[in-house]
Amino acid sequence: MIHYGHPFIIIAGIIGFALFLMGSRRLTLLEGLACSWVVAMVLTSFWAARVIPSLARSGTYIAGLGVFLGIQSIATPTDRGKTILRSVRKNLVLSGVILACYYLMNLALKIHAYGLSAVLLERYVGGAASLPWGATNTIGACLMIPLLSLFAFTEEPMRFQWLASILLVLAILSTCSRTLLILLLLLFVGILFLEKRMALLKIIGVVLALLVLISRYLVEQDAEALSMLMASRTEMGELYTLNDRIHIWQLFWSKFSSNPFNGVGYYGSLDAFGFSGHNILLTTLVEGGLMGLLPMLAFLVGMFIYVSCAGRGRVDRIPLLRLNRGALCFGILMLNLLVEDAQYTYAYIAYFWVFVAMLKSSIRGRENSYGYHT
User: Fold this and answer.
1) Mind listing the pLDDT tens digit for each residue in 276-286?
2) Packing angle between helix 280-308 and helix 29-45, nearest 10 degrees?
3) Kind plus residue range of the DSSP H or E element containing 277
4) Is-above-0.85 flag for pTM?
5) Which residues of 34-55 are buried (b: 16+ CB within 10 A; e: fewer)?
């Protein structure tokens, strides 16, 4: 990803900035907040002990911002703009499917090379199943974005949506992440309140059937390893402390409260603590202080409110929560960042900005094929 994908992200960002600058429209409030967040990120990168790695990641956010602005510039509420937006969505999903297949093949090869027990039970920094650019939880977080993009919009399903959903869900479940399992359940329960067709139930049924077959095969191969995995994933001590995350959050809050005006710099928490914060709010507080947190929080909260208010009663909403499907998917994305640090990964950064751009573009205009009204 670093050697081959990063140049393409940079090129896409440059093109995006060029499209925006050649256009005649001004920055909207949300776009301005996004710019202020990225600017704060770049400035606080110079506070870090290792400036170059910090700038490499904040620089990727600059490229992602260019993609975000570029999509806003071309995905206008016209027939051509709607066609572009559908193409962007299809390409994002296709990218996720390729990543899911790559991860599943990598998992199968690692099991063949090291054995089922080593791959399932050794989970430190993702264990043997991790990829060179990310641990299993990070990979799962990346895969969640293409999956969410399948359900965040009310347009007609894509031709390969069933297959894409099944592959993405299987790959996410194979990471054995408890957080992602809970988020998948939230997604499916929420969509079931909104979905008028039975397509989602069929997808869930196929996934469950495949899981039963896979579990049966794994039991035949190494029942003890599977039993130990289940025991480790349901151990009450880990569940009570959220896999020691509560202790990490206490350390990060203590660091911030002791010196709220002297952050360790963007992407500097790894050098300061030796581990990441697993919470985007606390991590940003420690790294950039209020200077880093406030613009980020303003953009994310503003985006959630913007998406939640779309439709003005004309779109289906989840009872009690009153969330439309776009707000549900964006909320799940944010919940994941409250317990993981996927925001540092190049693939996640690219997926994040494309997904957010699609959400915002799908709402803009009086009415479009995604079913939202503004």
Assistant:
1) 899 999 999 99
2) 170
3) none
4) yes
5) bbebbebbbebbebbeeeebbb
